[in-house]
């Protein structure tokens, strides 16, 4: 309880696809009405929906214009926002420890702090897993955070401008990109980069010809998109080849250098830009944190109520939660739709907890997976209760793909503001270039 107000304290760590929706909805329902004290802690000041990061990286989505300010969101929706990175947990004292925050000059602006809770929700997402492969950390770009995606965009833009201005022919692989990982993230990024390389030429960097840029994807499994039905993976493979993107399957990256990546069959793919999108894990600080049960990927093991197995007051959701999916005898996959569903579930469960009622169990509903190749095509499978799995492509697939983001915006802004945002987005799109050029 908050000593001053005697209110139940709910602390949510991580304001991403799941955590921010939960904080917003609980803030409106409980925080505003004074029924509980809701606090959101995030390592960043602003939020951007993670599935858009490959578009931020390619420059087709302006993160600056589309980001959400946590402080303002909290003020409007009845929760407190506290900036900082969680680094520890004391289950006895029911406190989380948050690391100091530094300015861009390295000056400490917020000291180390602790926040007490009665209920804690950990929603810190995931980070790339380099599996200890030599050179990945040093020589690859990642798409875990907005900052990384923005750095990627700057690097890409600068390399094109530099190549255009140089008074000597392009060097071999000077603009080439290799992406490790043929899952949805790697493929969507490749398609966006392909589109962008064409747009730069259209915007006047005419030395950047399609032949000057080779984009390659390296996937360890025998086919790309191993989680999707084979037909879709084949159709996507063919579409990527049609775009001139080189797809190499059945080869594992064993080393990355500042010149390119090497695979287990000793093939070397030279590239100036190397991207790692080949697997994720929950952040390292969660590993065995305060005696909670975690798995090999650092995920907190949770029960169907989303409570951690060893502490009833601590819940986890989204990518950092190892949540059982009994129908498939596996874990709920790390996807935005799972984080969204779990946030909606916890919205109800935390009210049940406050009222002393039994907690409902969460059941993952798989609505299918969609992969967007930007303007070229969107493919995927949708799951229906009666129809089973249906493969979709083209316009319908694109609409369903976009609807996931709209659901996120609806949870954060409500119907009216989401509609206004969509309209303003259309207006902006009609006057701004298709890519960010600064
Ligand atoms: C490029 C890309 C494309 C994707 N495309 C899709 C897609 O098309 N469909 C789909 O379903 N999924 C997609 N995903 C996966 C999807 O983004 C994640 O499954 C989803 O965002 C997980 O939500 P989350 O709430 O668990 O975590 P996140 O959305 O990652 O949010 C985690 C939050 O925690 C904060 N945080 C992290 N560590 C700390 C800490 N120690 N202390 C405080 N705060 C912390 C972060 O700043 C962040 O705000 C994609 C992912 C990427 C990278």
Could you characterize the architecture of this molecule?
This protein is an alpha/beta fold. The protein has helices spanning 19-31, 53-58, 63-66, 70-77, 136-139, 146-165, 184-202, 230-242, 336-354, 394-431; strands at 8-13, 36-42, 46-47, 68-69, 80-83, 86-90, 95-98, 101-102, 108-110, 113-116, 119-122, 127-128, 177-180, 215-218, 246-248, 253-256, 260-263, 268-270, 273-276, 280-281, 300-301, 307-308, 311-316, 321-322, 324-325, 330-331, 368-372, 378-384, 388-393. The protein contains 10 helices and 29 strands. The strands form 10 sheets. Strands 5-2-1-11-23-22 form a 6-stranded mixed β-sheet. Strands 15-14-13-19 form a 4-stranded parallel β-sheet. A 3-stranded antiparallel β-sheet has the order 6-7-10, with no helix packed on it. α1 (19-31) runs parallel beside α9. The longest helix is centred in the C-terminal third of the chain and has 38 residues, at 394-431. It binds flavin-adenine dinucleotide. Residues 13-19, 41-44, 47, 50-51, 53-54, 85-86, 123-125, 143, 184-185, 283, 318-320, 334-337, 339 line the site of flavin-adenine dinucleotide. Flavin-adenine dinucleotide binds next to β2, α2, α7 and α9.
